[in-house]
Amino acid sequence: MKRFAACFLLLVLGANCTPRSANAQPSSYQVGNTTVSVSTLSTGLDTPWELLWGPDNFLWMTERGGRVSRVDPATGTVTPLLTIADVTETGESGLLGLAVVPGSASNQYSVFVVYNYTEGGQLKEKLVRYQYTVGTTTLSNPQVLLGNIPAQTTHSGSRLLLLPDNTLLMTTGDAQDLPSAQNRSSLTGKILRLNLDGTPPADNPVPGSLVYTLGHRNPQGLVRAPGTGKLYSSEHGPNNDDEVNLIEANRNYGWPNVEGACDLAAEQTFCQANNVREPLFAWTPTLGVSGLAYYDHPAIPEWRNNLLLLSLKAGTFSALPLSANGEQVARENRLWTGNYGRLRAICVSPQGRVYAATSNRDGRSNPAPTDDRILVLENRAFTPTSTTRPAALNLTLYPNPAPAGSAATVQLPTLRASATALLTDVRGRQVWQGQLASGSSQLILPPTAPGLYLLHLRTPDGAELRGRIMRP
């Protein structure tokens, strides 16, 4: 009877009460002509929320209870860095999104996290920046960049995404205050864009405002396609219309006035008047869409230029092929449904491996003894060739530091094509943009104040490089 009552409650919540160990878990799946193997990298985790490939070639992970860790992708060893003391984990709240950004020194990173906390008896959300030094096992020097954001035990987002111009995107849910999603003075129900010090970039849609897009219910995934530069988000619908959206600056995504497409008379009127962007794809009934990644690696050629999407309620792993311009999704190719329970976080390594984390200890499932886990999906038959895009390219700048007004040579010995170059200051403000030829090119730095500048390069095949230039 007790077991029946627990299952009944989970079903009411839209969860699956089948024990994870009872579900079939194949060791491989066939994707076209490619065999994709699935194995377990790490076990015994507690509700992983974010999983990303870090600049140190380790996996970085948040768990909802407040722990930030690095995970060795070769051994699965989890190295805790910090358990954040003021995280409030209740309902869906807790430690959420994560971004890891190389700092001004080559052995230091800035680590950004967003989480829920309690102040004055009220649940809120904040964005905090920590410092990490390579070789250590801790995070230090916390600085609150954004705080006092209204939150609830549901609908608080939140993903973080670093952009090539050194600005940060942060998603927020509507915190169960539906009208706030359409209120530009509120930070809830939005995708925000900010400099790495928390200030609004000068080229945001509205000067002085962090709001990049509005009209969101509860965005759960956020990713950028390097080749086209386009941004995508996955978002929970109510009982209908889970969405995958193409994110464009200053667009309205409709909530709560529009659910899914603009297909009702009242919705059409609102959409025409408010610059609403309809979803690329929607699901009714809902899946509980969650983590979102972009795949474009020859290891699994059938997934090239695909969005990879996880879901919680349905426990699906899906591939969504994008059109060449990245503006359409034709169909959903589902790899599995329910085999591993609830799925939350996903990322792709430079070697073309996919890492996915389960979320079976989030209170809405019946976890197996080894849950939660990080799964690895890979094509073990893939052998890199000389034509395969390298995981990393050497970038040499000289002289470095470069005197004001002088030329700095950018040497790219392994680059086979031109690259788009962007020069920013450490706050992400653009100083210069242009094209660099393969091999080596000269770049005359414009007159600027003394300080550190960052050079970002993007090749046509989507590889991204970074270098630092110091202005004395």
Automatic annotation (TrEMBL):
Residues 1-24 form the signal peptide. Residues 45-364 form the Glucose/Sorbosone dehydrogenase domain. The keyword Signal applies. This is T9SS C-terminal target domain-containing protein. Keywords: Signal. It comes from Hymenobacter oligotrophus. The keyword Signal applies. It holds the Pfam family GSDH. It comes from the Bacteria.
